[in-house]
């Protein structure tokens, strides 16, 4: 396709065949297909939610190379479905190691899971080297019959 054809197709049906904002082949539902990733500068944001409850289905080192956030939220709490995924947490380390700048990054897990605890302990030295801080929640939200840990984020 020419650039004009791609531009027209995205205007006529925005979001069609996009995975994490990247155009994919309609014949392939896999975002990790062998299609080339468009070249472009990284995107800097304050806060990014790691897609799909930190499942390895949609997030790899390329995500972290291109989406550079001050804060990443990890919400997975389903070990049976691989959420959060150790591979995604490792991808953060791999992706950030390619930034070429030592910006502070804060990882905010919304649940205390065995996967995140083990990853934190096993990669703590690498986290420090890459200027990655992992928040542990010391706050608790109490709502009617339910209470859960919470983090407060200030910008």
Automatic annotation (TrEMBL):
Would you kindly state one Gene Ontology biological process term found in this protein's UniProt entry? Answer: dendrite development
Q: Where is the composition biased (Polar residues)?
A: 22-33
Task: Locate the region Disordered.
Answer: 1-36
Recorded GO terms, molecular function?
Answer: actin binding; microtubule binding
This protein's GO cellular component annotations are: cytosol; dendrite; microtubule; microtubule associated complex; neuronal cell body; synapse
Query: Which Gene3D superfamilies does the UniProt record give?
Result: Ribonuclease Z/Hydroxyacylglutathione hydrolase-like (3.60.15.10)
Q: Which domain of life is it from?
A: Eukaryota
Could you identify this protein by its name?
Answer: MAP1A protein
This protein's species is Aegotheles bennettii
């Amino acid at each position: 396709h020419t650039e004009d054809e791609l531009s027209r197709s995205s205007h006529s049906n925005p979001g069609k065949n996009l995975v994490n904002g990247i155009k994919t082949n309609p014949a392939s539902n896999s975002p990790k297909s062998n299609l080339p990733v468009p070249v472009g500068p990284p995107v800097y944001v304050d806060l990014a939610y790691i897609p799909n409850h930190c499942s390895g289905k949609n997030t790899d080192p390329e995500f972290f190379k291109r989406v550079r956030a001050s804060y990443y939220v990890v919400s997975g709490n389903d070990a049976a479905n691989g959420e959060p995924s150790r591979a995604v947490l490792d991808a953060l380390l791999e992706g950030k190691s390619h930034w070429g700048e030592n910006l502070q990054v804060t990882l905010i897990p919304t649940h205390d899971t065995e996967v995140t605890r083990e990853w934190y302990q096993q990669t703590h030295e690498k986290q420090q080297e890459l200027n990655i801080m992992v928040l542990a929640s010391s706050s608790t939200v109490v709502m009617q019959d339910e209470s859960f840990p919470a983090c407060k984020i200030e910008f």
